[in-house]
Design a protein that fits this description.
Layout (H helix, E strand, L loop, with lengths): L1 E6 L6 E5 L4 H4 L4 E8 L2 E7 L2 H11 L5 H6 L4
Antiparallel strand pairs: 1-2, 3-4
Length: 75
Amino acid sequence: MTDKTCHCYGCGRNQGVDSSELPCLALQGWYIVSHLLGPEDIKRYGFCSLECLQRWVNENAETVPEIFLNSFEEL
């Protein structure tokens, strides 16, 4: 019986973790990212692959404005 589930924030895949197995073995190959929001306030995100992690970063990270990057060409 699956006691816990890890959700991939990139593709939505769910991986069950039985109480009889170690999470580090059940989630082998997964990437877990911790976002420190404040004292004792941590948000954790799970990703089943580097592709899912990269997709999530691309969708959620702020990008550098193109006009700023183009200004380097003028120097």
